[in-house]
Specification:
Elements lengths: L2 E8 L6 H9 L1 H8 L3 E8 L8 E9 L2 E12 L2 E10 L2 E12 L2 E10 L1 H19 L1
Antiparallel strand pairs: 1-7, 2-3, 3-4, 4-5, 5-6, 6-7
């Protein structure tokens, strides 16, 4: 059973919705923002900048050591879809995020699917870090 988290952040007065969408569509910026302890990233497939899935191999440093996983980013008119498949020391995981700009806000819906121990850790990390990513 998956867990869903919703994070909504009002857009700053100086940020236009299109500027926020453009930032989400910048995959390099998105990866560096959402993986603050990035060790490496490798583009695997897809053409960044187009509305098609782009797959990246990400290596990120975590408290438990380095983790390597695949991240698929897909630009959509209102924002970005992100899909992560990986294995943590506690088991396999998938994380689906939908980032949307609407009504003067940045809306993010995160769905986590993993075993209960991994899910608890990921949920805590999302609830702590993602509001900062929105900024």
């Amino acid at each position: 059973m998956s867990t869903e988290i919703v994070i909504n952040t009002p857009l700053p007065a100086e940020a236009t919705p299109q500027a926020v969408i453009n930032s989400l569509h910048n995959h390099d910026l998105y990866i560096k923002t959402t993986c603050p302890n990035l060790v490496s990233q490798k583009h695997i497939s897809g053409t960044p900048g187009l509305d098609q899935p782009c797959v990246y191999e990400i290596t990120d440093k975590r408290a438990v050591g380095q983790t390597t996983f695949q991240m698929t980013l897909t630009n959509v008119a209102e924002g970005l879809d992100s899909f992560i498949e990986g294995t943590a020391p506690t088991g396999a995981m998938t994380i689906k995020s939908k980032w949307r700009v609407a009504g003067g806000e940045l809306h993010e819906t995160v769905e986590i699917d993993s075993n209960i121990a991994t899910k608890k850790v990921i949920k805590g990390n999302v609830e702590k870090a993602h509001p900062e990513f929105h900024q």
